[in-house]
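User: Batch of two.

Assistant: Item 1 of 2:
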Amino acid sequence: MSKTAQIQNSPYWWVAAPVRPLPVQPLPQKTDVLIVGAGFAGLTASVILARAGRSVVVVDKMMPGEGASSRNGGITSGNIRPSFDELSRRFGEDRALAIEAEGKTARKFLYDFIRTEKLDCDFQPVGKFGGAIGREQYEAGARTAETLHKRLGIETFAVPQAEQSRYIGSDFYRGGHVRMDIGGVHPAKLAAEILRLALEAGAAVHSGTEVKGVRRDGAEFSVETSAGTVSARQVLVCTNGYTDGSDPWLRRRLIPVRSRIIVTDPLPTEVMDRLMPSRMMYSEGLILGNYFRPTPDGTRILLGGRDASSGTDEAGPTEKIRQGLLRIFPELKTVGLSHSWYGHVAMNWDMVPRVFEREGVTYATGFCGSGVVWAPWLGTRAAHKLLGDDQARSAFEFRPPAAIPFYNGKPYFLPALIQGYRLRDRLSLARATR
């Protein structure tokens, strides 16, 4: 790999929209709502609540948006990990359709929010191509696309292998499917813009403020932080992949998983035209498959995937992700990388995002790697739940996720689990009709 020494191990997104600490302000002693987590979910909820006249305090032990909100791939997939067929088996077809329908609503909410609020975040409603690894997967995807189009009116269709060159310049896939309700954003710019709205609405946002614990104190909550104690009528927790020991109950239910992203050096226009002629967002049908896209300016390729490492080494994990890039686009063998970084997404036992309540505390969490859509949406559902209005209704209001046996925050089982997924992907490729 060329230019290894020049790779920056920080998010590409931070070049145009660096995350920064907020000026230190005295922490209010009392508030209507205290929100833990200043990412997409917490900040969007704070906008809704503050505009409704509630006093709102948002605290985060890091800088606003410093976690997954500014580190992700910026694809508005709103993906649900279980397939439509699996959701139907688990919850029934009506609930599965309600979940898929809410995904459509959640994307529309995000797009309307961006346009109405005039958020400067490089929003590109270009659609997404999902590559099939074999004919069987292509046919299953075609059936799902037909169901979603007929039942929910989603603009989605199958792309046979003979026509896929219109969408992607790769021979790895055996056709695929397109969803036109998916696009791309610059996630760090989006996080910065939602922060701006929160501050303008009157929310008090405090960075570098760690929550030590939350306890019920009569009709209110007492929230102990590193900057003092706050009395709050309501508490909303939106910590997701960066949940720590301040909430051991939640930590036992969320698995932080590293996701690593690489970005190529600038590519000639003719290369981008050949490899990504439609300039769409992209994914593939493997458990540990890659997601990829052009950067907003159309000059580079950004590609991400699971990072099974747990140490500080950057070179090894970067090379593994780069091999995924070369599997799809072999001609990029001599192209250098400009950036490589990782962030934590949060998975739960059943892989479904949710809003729920426990002992009076409301949670919006477990976005399972698709937080660009689900975090703002479920943040708003949680905010409306706290306001007690009819907009709180959601197909994602489930019981709390199940605790993971013998787990207290360190995912000891993750390396074995990822190896198992890799084996399943190898078997899927070996069995696929290619």
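Item 2 of 2:
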Amino acid sequence: MASSIFSGPCTVPAVEGKNYFGLKPSVKNNLRFNDGKKTSIIGCPKRVFTVRASEKKDGPIKKLGLSDAECEAAVVAGNVPEAPPVLPMPAAPAGTPVVPSLPLSRRPRRNRKSPAMRATFQETSISPANFVYPLFIHEGEEDTPIGAMPGCYRLGWRHGLVEEVAKARDVGVNSIVLFPKVPDALKSSTGDEAYNDNGLVPRAIRLLKDKYPDLVIYTDVALDPYSSDGHDGIVREDGVIMNDETVYQLCKQAVSQARAGADVVSPSDMMDGRVGAMRKALDAEGFQHVSIMSYTAKYASSFYGPFREALDSNPRFGDKKTYQMNPANYREALVEAHEDESEGADILLVKPGLPYLDIIRLLRDKSPLPIAAYQVSGEYSMIKAGGVLKMIDEEKVMMESLMCLRRAGADIILTYFALQAARCLCGEKR
């Protein structure tokens, strides 16, 4: 691209100085533009100056010193300044068939032809503010790697946890959710450790709130990390998961977490009626400001395997199919969403994420509440494994998967990629 090209005839010689580049006019209105044919001026040869925007200069380009009125008058008189020529049409490769243009009134590719236009018309955006970072904690002081989840650790609650939160905040991730690895000696069939005010999770919440008062802390409300049976609820001697008795324990757990300073309690147990009971229990204790993010559509998925290794919380027997949803079911998610909304949930969550994009979209279309998606451990580990084996570009697949969750309708995404993805979005490579 070039600037305007002028022909500057006058009665003084050309000068280059501090104030002008080209010709310095000595008398007002004695400068004329080239009309494209000839310039008639007595005693001064035709001079044409061209300055291209692509040329490198030591300083700013100097102007010719014409007033706006002089420029406009020249154009009105037909003496239009020259401009760079139109670029020629790029040549097609040899052998390209010559065909008439298709009679298309709409060509969607027009809006995709350059990076700037693609950015202009991008419908979905993603930022670190959309992420909730799941963090595993334990009683030890060292950070212990999780074999099935490369890059993830059981963090020591006094040191590693605080350091990881600081890293996340540095790149704009200010929301976390805590998952505890509880010592086996503290587990029981009724999961009483879940509502110990001086337990691992309440202590970690108080520590983080003391260090970072504005940090948004989500907590997991379920008995499986605390149960000697590894189930989300109390197990009867015949193997049945008891619903109402479990809900009673969960309410005490939620109140304990709120008392410690949790901003959002997140029942992941899938017991019937737990959201309404939890809302009443929180309100009765003065925690009306604490939100409930319900695991509304939590499926009995095979994608949870690495998570259970991280918490050492595999069920001692059986499976979780009598309380988690059947992966084959779609409409059932609406039943769960309707109940959670009526009971006072503030956020509806779908778990897993990417294999259940249709469920995320379903809830997004049917509910006015914020929708969360959990990109679970199996999704994370598959992408990590594919990257290690050089079968995929880990970073690109990571970002595409997160964008897909947003496109489907998720307002927030719980993802173990939160720190890594936020660094990518911030342009920081580590």
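Residues 1-84 form one domain.
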